[in-house]
Write a structure and sequence with these properties.
Elements: H1 11-42, H2 53-88, H3 90-122, H4 129-132, H5 138-149, H6 151-174, H7 187-209, H8 231-237, H9 240-255, H10 264-275, H11 284-288, E1 289-291, E2 302-308, H12 327-334, E3 338-345, H13 351-360, H14 373-377, H15 384-390, E4 394-399, H16 408-414, E5 419-421, E6 431-432, E7 435-436, H17 438-448, E8 454-459, H18 478-484, H19 493-519, E9 523-529, H20 543-547, E10 549-555, E11 569-570, H21 574-582, E12 588-590, E13 603-604, E14 608-610, E15 614-617, E16 626-627, H22 638-658, H23 664-670
Parallel strand pairs: 2-8, 2-9, 3-11, 4-5, 4-8
Antiparallel strand pairs: 1-12, 3-10, 6-7, 9-10, 13-14, 14-15, 15-16
Helix pairs in contact: 1-2, 1-6, 2-3, 2-7, 2-8, 3-6, 10-22, 12-19, 17-19
């Protein structure tokens, strides 16, 4: 080790290498931001007809915040070895900065030049197709790129671009940043300046980690970045590395869709038992055919399915009636044109499972439907929107958040929804990183209603972490709620904030229902939570209080007793229930679930089952029932419930992934 090594540990030496890292960080951020600006301007033909300057500025701002994360990651690749060399092998430090970043700039330039034809082909920034392309004939792919997409001149352009950028970076690294003459300052002043510098570095690190934010609550990432009303701008917000990361994430989710352990014979027999038909065909769609049993000759004009974020059922239970967070929802349940099932399960543990359950009719069976190519090829036979459209309803999906989250915009439209609306369509509205405030979402839904019949799925987002709606300003009486809580929870400010968001969500939901009924009294509204299991009063709630969500029907053709007295179900049972209330008797339709008005007295999801009197885990043998609130002597017919669980899972695994025909050859070719 050199005798000069101790001097390398000086503040000045440390400051010098940190400044070099900050230069590289700022350089990458500038490059990615300029790339985005030029991309937007060059491809202006892809702007939407109503895209304005405000939308472009929003995309540039949002994209720059996201690129802070990319710039941080790129900087780290060269900073770590350069930092080590700065202290151990100073002579090679310069070459590491220039060499590593030269390679990175070359890769960035190639990606950038490729992104223009890529967008023209796929109308997206880099997506899962880059992984699909790895399975193509590479020779044919190469010549296609040469002949049709100008591979050679584009590659030459990328080389020139990389050299130009590298020269700029080289000059930036050679530039000496002017420093304050603090050598002869008093010690406290030196320490103050150095502390300020370190704090600035700390802020830069946070911005790089959290995508232009100082914490995860407001972080920008590829899933929540697309907030404009223009699909092109939403794609342009993602820089090329972020787009590739999106493609990698979605592809990984799809590859994680492992198969379930069912044979062809198992699935055929389970499907036959579920449908009550003989097991004499390998076409699963035969077993999924249903007919409306009761029906109506007076269909509602507008039909709404409201998937309310984290709308758990426990606040509606008698045990919690004195805690004033669900008064509006309780009043709605008490109305004569409303019926309520308290024993209902979500499709899965997350919002995306609720969306896939309502949109496709499939249960959560270890498939990530929003990433699977099969989901985008055509609507599934059980998809709700196309079947509602056959009844004369215009189909709309409203989401409070960005269209890019879980590819929800593309997914819902691929599954038959004629229209999709998200936060970017609602203008400058208040909200969090997950979506606009519920009242803004409902206002936009009401604005778009006409006299024409419509089927509307609404997914809100306010009752979601980071729980930053100013609910007290909106009327939440926190002190009244505090006083109603058990003494041991009265000082739990986080819980009070969460309960305030439940209060706000249910108030706005009930208000929306009242406004719909006033304007269109011939409407039908179905309300469920997307999932439970986010917060409870107790730290260890029972299974029912933790996972249950409410199922509320209100409006035309609904009265007390519309639902079976022993009704229970899950989100795959929503569409069959609707069909009994909107379609004439005898109407044929396709569904996996059952109607809560006729036959559904049990529900199952990814991990649990439920009846009117009991709930339990779905993967225990034998099943172990736990009492639902107020019930006594819980029991379950183990074989009947096991068969139902297996049937729902088997069909929800095979049919979306492999198609309607049970054939071992298909499984052998595609694999599990």
């Amino acid at each position: 080790m050199s005798m000069n090594f101790p001097s390398r540990l000086s503040w000045e030496n440390f400051h010098r290498v940190i400044v070099e890292g900050l230069k590289v960080y700022a350089f990458y951020l500038a490059v990615l931001s300029l790339f985005r600006l030029f991309f937007i301007l060059w491809l202006h033909d892809y702007w939407g007809p109503n895209t304005g300057n405000d939308d472009i500025l929003l995309a540039l701002w949002r994209g720059s915040r996201l690129s802070m994360q990319t710039a941080g990651a790129l900087t780290l690749i060269s900073f770590v070895p350069a930092f080590a060399a700065h202290y151990l092998w100073p002579k090679v430090e310069k070459y590491l900065w220039l060499g590593i970043n030269g390679l990175l700039l070359g890769a960035l330039s190639v990606l950038y030049m490729a992104s223009f034809p890529y967008y023209r082909i796929y109308r997206m920034n880099f997506n899962q197709m880059i992984f699909t392309g790895m399975n193509e004939d590479w020779t044919a792919l190469f010549w296609t790129m040469v002949d049709q997409y100008g591979l050679l001149p584009r590659f030459a352009g990328a080389v020139v671009l990389a050299l130009v950028l590298w020269q700029f970076l080289r000059r930036l690294l050679a530039w000496e940043v002017p420093l304050l003459p603090i050598r002869h300052w008093p010690l406290w002043q030196k320490l103050a300046v150095r502390a300020t510098f370190l704090y600035g570095v700390y802020i830069a690190v946070l911005l790089g980690i959290f995508g232009g934010s100082l914490g995860w609550q407001t972080a920008v990432d590829w899933e929540n970045a697309g907030v404009t009303k223009d699909e092109f701008l939403n794609e342009a917000i993602l820089d090329n590395p972020q787009a590739i990361y999106r493609a990698y994430s979605l592809n990984s989710r799809m590859l994680a869709c492992n198969g379930l352990d069912f044979t062809m014979e198992d699935i055929r027999q389970l499907a036959a038992n579920l449908s009550g038909k003989p097991a004499d065909t390998d076409n699963l769609d035969v077993y999924l055919q249903k007919s409306v049993v009761q029906g109506t000759d007076n269909p509602p004009r507008h039909v709404f399915v409201i998937l309310s974020e984290s709308l758990a059922n426990w606040p509606l239970l008698d045990k919690y009636k004195d805690i004033p967070i669900a008064e509006d929802l309780r009043a709605l349940v008490a109305e004569q044109d409303t019926d309520y099932c308290p024993t209902f399960l979500p499709n899965g543990a997350s919002t995306v499972s609720a969306v896939t359950g309502v949109v496709t009719g499939w249960a959560d069976a270890n498939l990530y439907l929003t990433t699977m190519p099969e989901s985008f090829a055509a609507p599934y036979s059980t998809a709700s929107a196309p079947q509602m459209a056959k009844l004369g309803y215009d189909t709309n999906f409203f989401y409070a958040g960005p269209a890019t989250w879980e590819r929800i915009g593309a997914f819902t439209q691929a599954q038959g929804f004629a229209h999709f609306y998200s936060r970017g369509d609602f203008g400058d509205v208040p909200g969090s990183v997950w979506g606009c405030e519920d009242e803004c979402l409902y206002a936009n839904v009401l604005e778009r209603l006409t006299d024409a019949p419509s089927f509307n799925v609404i997914l809100n987002a306010s009752n979601h972490s980071p729980y930053d709606v100013d609910v007290e300003a909106k009327g939440y009486d926190k002190e009244k709620v505090r006083a109603a809580l058990p003494a041991e929870h009265q000082q739990d400010e986080e819980l009070l904030r969460e309960l305030g968001h439940y209060w706000y969500a249910q108030r706005e939901l009930a208000k929306f229902v009242r406004e719909v009924k006033e304007k269109y009294p011939d409407s039908l509204v179905l309300i469920v939570g997307d999932h439970g299991d986010r917060y409870n009063i107790e730290k260890q709630p029972d299974m029912y209080a933790r996972y249950g969500i409410p199922f509320i029907l209100t409006g035309q053709n609904v009265h007390k007793g519309t639902l079976l007295a022993d009704s229970a179900g899950s989100q795959i049972d929503i569409f069959p229930t609707l069909m009994e209330l909107v379609a004439p008797k005898g109407t044929n339709y396709m569904a996996l679930g059952q109607s809560l008005t006729t036959t559904s007295n049990k529900g199952v999801n990814y991990g649990f089952w439920i009846t009117r009197k009991a709930i339990g885990k779905a993967d225990t043998t034998p099943l172990v029932p736990e009492a639902v609130a107020g019930s006594e002597n819980p029991a379950v017919d183990d074989q009947v419930m096991q068969d139902y669980i297996n049937a729902i899972r088997a069909i929800s695994w095979w049919r979306p992934k492999y198609g309607p025909i049970l054939d071992q050859k298909i499984l052998d070719e595609k694999g599990r």
